[in-house]
UniProtKB/TrEMBL annotation:
The lineage of its organism: Eukaryota, Metazoa, Chordata, Craniata, Vertebrata. Keywords: Membrane, Signal, Transmembrane, Transmembrane helix. It comes from Haplochromis burtoni. This is IGF-like family receptor 1. PANTHER family: IGF-LIKE FAMILY RECEPTOR 1. The chain crosses the membrane at residues 114-137.
Length: 282
């Protein structure tokens, strides 16, 4: 009997209502509101939960709307029936004078012939585009090689290279006589050396500098720090080049160009291209 009254009390209290936070008690034990409160609009509680639940939405038809004690009752999903149809052949009559002669529907041979030609035509167009792209690429490579043979294109106001690392190889940028020249020729050409100092000595967070070049040449970090501390009296780049020529006298300009390429400093490689203006000295 006690269990029956407890269940009856639970149903009476909770149908259409929900439990308030902390059952209406505050932190000091006092009651500031009722134990339950009515469900809000578009919510319900049929006694199976302590809190109200959102009403369901019907996709097609609503038989009974939602209220605070029961959810929405939706109608059955309508079933569409397909009516079988029968296709009948149609014959058209063309008027040609006094006599009527039956004519058949147009043939599909034209559509079939076009479909047969579509695939070979697409393949032919693709081959032409690939051949044209290869021709343009080869033409650009020839122009890059021709640039190395024309010293008139290299001057102080023209930089043929960008800062990107995706350009041509150093063998296509610099001529063979420059690549095979000893590294000492860079130190001997004061104009080229001064331009390299201006490009590489300043420290930058965006572009690699003489510090990175010295690191690639296996100089210790203490030596690099000391060299930069003395940059007011001597260029760090000049000190690096002098140290490399002492340790590796067989190094050429090609070795330096490859390191600059690895550092993505094509502007410095463009400065090395100016060594060709003094070919007799190289």
């Amino acid at each position: 009997i006690i269990l029956y009254y407890i269940i009856l009390y639970y149903i009476i209290i909770h149908v259409g209502h929900e439990i308030t936070p902390n059952c209406g008690f505050d932190d000091d034990g006092g009651r500031h509101e009722a134990t339950t409160k009515p469900c809000k609009t578009n919510t319900f509680n049929n006694g199976s939960s302590f809190h109200c639940t959102l009403c369901s939405l019907c996709q097609f038809q609503t038989e009974r709307p939602c209220n605070t004690t029961a959810d929405t009752v939706c109608g059955k999903v309508p079933v569409t029936q397909r009516i079988p149809t029968t296709d009948f052949p149609v014959t058209t009559l063309a008027y040609q004078g006094p006599n009527l002669t039956p004519t058949s529907p147009p043939s599909r041979s034209h559509n079939v012939s076009w479909a047969a030609w579509a695939v070979p035509l697409a393949i032919l167009i693709s081959i032409v585009l690939v051949a044209l792209s290869a021709y343009v690429f080869g033409l650009k490579r020839k122009r890059a090689k021709a640039f190395c043979r024309q010293p008139s294109y290299i001057n102080d106001g023209f930089a043929p290279l960008t800062g990107s690392s995706n350009g041509s190889d150093v063998e296509e940028i610099l001529c063979a006589d420059i690549l095979s020249a000893p590294l000492q020729s860079v130190l001997d050409n004061l104009d080229v050396l001064e331009e390299l100092v201006i490009l590489l000595d300043p420290e930058s967070h965006v572009r690699k500098s003489t510090k990175h070049l010295a690191s690639h040449c296996a100089f210790p970090s203490t030596w690099i720090t000391y060299t930069y501390s003395m940059k007011d009296s001597k260029s760090p780049l000049k000190a690096v080049l002098e140290g490399v020529t002492c340790k590796n006298p067989d190094w050429t300009v090609g070795h330096l160009a490859k390191l600059l390429k690895h550092m993505e400093r094509n502007d410095a490689i463009a400065a090395l291209a100016k060594l060709k203006t003094n070919k007799t000295e190289v």
